[in-house]
From TrEMBL:
Keywords from the named record: Glycosidase, Hydrolase
Highest taxon above the source species: Bacteria
GO molecular function: hydrolase activity
UniProt family annotation: Belongs to the glycosyl hydrolase 1 family.
Organism of derivation: Halobacillus shinanisalinarum
Pfam families xrefs: Glyco_hydro_1
Name this polypeptide is given: Glycoside hydrolase family 1 protein
Positions annotated as active site in the UniProt record: E367 (nucleophile)
PANTHER family cross-referenced by the UniProt entry: 6-PHOSPHO-BETA-GLUCOSIDASE GMUD, GLYCOSYL HYDROLASE
């Protein structure tokens, strides 16, 4: 394979996962319940084929073999998350020593294979007891999260050098408080805004706690799913709609995380509609003083936006959707196996935006991937021939490479995901892994893309 796209030396090649989605052992090893265990027990039918978070690839038991597989496909980095409810059942109080041993073993095993652990502290998995006292709406939960984060820094900070406070903090806001796809299934924009705000306070406070340790060469960041917002046309109404979508879905997290403050336009808009969140004295100073060192960018698809055809009914409850409509651009390229748009250049636009407007913050693609339903139909001679995924990865890497050529500070690429995993309400509907997983037998098999990424990692390009 001749190399046309070479990446900077030391580029991070790896993949991303999360505790609830791969560990299994949901009620073992002393783990407490989180909102997923609870919600599944309550409403199993909301989950694809009735499959819940107890049914995963069982990484809790198989991490050694899995890490060996990571090495075999050339990973030099791997992202996983710590489960708050496993480490501190109930969210506060005693530390579960079985969990400490488990995460220690995972970290040590990764390092023994020269794979750098990237550790995320929260991937949608609120301990049930914390949700019962209000979850992110309650500032007490914010402080308990910071205690949990600090416990992780103390326990694992001697070896872990890349920390992340949250994965996609907007998703629990959208899922849990706007659009009913996460527990607690509230639909209320005012509460949603408070949840988003408090999450960013938790981010800033955790960063502050992290800095106190003065670890050598360690960095802390946040992982955001950025969806570039493209207007239907250049007419002022479409442009405005697209800017507002960008404010709600990107800048409401990106700006406080990287610049340490909310965009004025967003504050004004929320103020006009009586939807500013409750704040406490000192919040603004806290946020400004505790911004991230590193940004993980999850990118799947862009947002296409148009002005609303009709003005919203002013008596209907306030929602972000008051200000814009999503728009299905004719001729857009689709991942027809998942129903999401594929727009590879989006990754370039995100990176150039970070370069131009966010101080060229150090970043990496922390998730990018192609979900496919019924992927078994692509098996030939016992292997899933996922050429579509290889094309998808190549397309995004080309644009990432272009952004790097133009000076953006991107350091790596992680696929979602290492192996097929359980996903929130969708369970095993959409498969994303370099390795397929048989849900019954737990057998893993490399897909064609696993061989491809090995070559890419070995040559540091393709
Ligand atoms: C990402 C999340 O946004 O999307 C993952 O970080 C999730 O946790 C992934 O699994 C894919 O989602 P889905 O719904 O296609 O399975």
């Amino acid at each position: 394979m001749s190399v046309d796209y070479t990446f900077p030396e030391g580029f991070w090649w790896g993949s991303a996962t999360s505790a609830t989605q791969i560990e299994g052992a949901a009620s073992q090893g002393g783990k407490g319940q989180n909102i997923w265990d609870y919600w599944y027990a309550k409403e199993p039918n909301r989950f694809f084929e009735g499959v819940g978070p107890e049914t995963t690839s069982n990484f809790y038991y198989t991490y050694q073999e899995d890490i060996k597989r990571m090495k075999e496909i050339g990973h030099n980095t791997f992202r996983f998350s710590i489960s708050w409810s496993r480490l501190i059942p109930g969210g506060k109080g005693e530390i579960n020593q079985e969990a400490v041993q488990f995460y220690n073993r995972v970290i040590d095993e990764l390092m023994a294979h020269d794979i750098e652990p990237f550790v995320n502290l929260f991937h949608f998995d609120m301990p049930l007891e914390m949700q019962e006292i209000g979850g992110w709406e309650n500032r007490e939960v914010v402080d308990l999260f910071v205690e949990y984060a600090n416990t992780c820094f103390e326990l694992f900070g001697d070896r872990v050098k890349k920390w992340f406070t949250f994965n996609e903090p907007i998703v629990p806001v959208e899922g849990g408080y706007l659009y009913d796809f996460h527990y607690p299934n509230v639909v209320d924009a005012k509460r949603a805004i408070q949840v988003g705000y408090n999450t960013m306070i938790a981010n800033a406070k955790s960063i502050k706690a992290f800095r106190f340790h003065q670890f050598d060469e360690s960095q802390i960041g946040v992982i955001l799913n950025l969806t570039p917002s493209y207007p239907r046309s250049q007419n002022p109404a479409d442009l405005k709609a697209s800017q507002i979508a960008d404010l709600f879905f990107n800048r409401s997290f990106l700006d406080p995380a990287v610049l340490g403050k909310y965009p004025q336009e967003l504050i004004k808009l929320l103020e006009e509609h009586g939807h500013l969140p409750q704040t406490e004295e000192g919040d603004a100073v806290l946020m400004e003083a505790n911004t991230v060192d590193l940004l993980g960018v999850n990118y799947y698809q862009p947002r296409r936006v148009k002005a609303k055809d009709h003005l919203p009914n002013p008596y209907s409850p306030f929602m972000p959707d008051w200000f814009f409509d999503n728009y299905e651009m004719p001729g857009r390229k689709m991942n027809k196996y998942r129903g999401w748009e594929i727009y590879e250049k989006g990754i370039y636009d995100i990176m150039m935006n970070l370069k131009e407007n966010y101080g060229n913050i150090e970043s990496f693609v922390s998730e990018n991937g192609m979900g496919v339903q019924d992927e078994g139909r692509f098996i030939q001679d016992g292997i899933i021939e996922d050429d579509y995924r290889i094309e998808f990865i190549k397309g995004h890497l080309q644009w990432l490479h272009q952004a790097i050529e133009e000076g953006c500070n991107a350091k790596g690429y992680h696929l979602w995901s290492f192996m097929d995993n359980w996903s929130w309400m969708n369970a095993y509907k959409n498969r994303y892994g370099f390795f397929s997983v048989d849900i019954e037998t737990k057998e893993r098999k490399p897909k064609k893309s696993a061989y491809f990424i090995k070559q890419v990692a070995d040559k540091n390009g393709f």
